[in-house]
Specification:
single chain; two-stranded antiparallel ribbon; globular
């Protein structure tokens, strides 16, 4: 299983689309890439971010905070999303028993309703994935250096 983790300053970023970079790991190899949504106005950057995750063949994400619309897009793309609490350092971090987010309503409401992308109606459908679960196996981020 290949995971993506938004990070900033060596820790899980406080907000998914505002992360400085993303860490991609499959437990044997880790690499980082800059966040294409970080310096983009409107929805174009977020669409680029979603494309990056799909191109990297991500199966799951670990996030602290994420917006409803992005969460809906991830779930519709069959990418599992797990919620981590706290300001966790990524250097050899180990994750177990993280709750899975399975509904767009579990994300944060959009604060920027005046922007064009937030005014569009998005379906807030349930995930196409199997029943919700917790991250049951141990995920250790190896080889990450901030």
């Amino acid at each position: 299983m290949k995971f993506a983790i938004p990070y900033q300053n060596g820790r899980i970023a406080g907000h998914f689309s505002k992360a400085e970079s993303f860490l991609f790991t499959d437990q044997t190899h880790s690499e980082t890439m800059p966040n294409p949504a970080l310096n983009s106005a409107g929805c174009g950057g977020k669409k680029s971010l979603l494309s990056l995750l799909k191109n990297q063949q991500i199966n799951a994400l670990i996030v602290r905070n994420i917006g409803q619309k992005m969460l809906a897009n991830l779930l519709e793309s069959n990418i599992r999303v797990f919620h981590a609490q706290g300001n966790i350092a990524l250097n050899n971090a180990t994750f177990t028993e993280l709750p899975e987010l399975t509904r767009a309503s579990q994300g944060r409401h959009c604060k920027n309703t005046k922007q064009g992308c937030c005014n569009k109606k998005h379906s807030m459908t349930a995930s196409k994935l199997s029943a919700p679960s917790q991250l049951k196996h141990k995920l250790t981020v190896l080889g990450f250096k901030a």
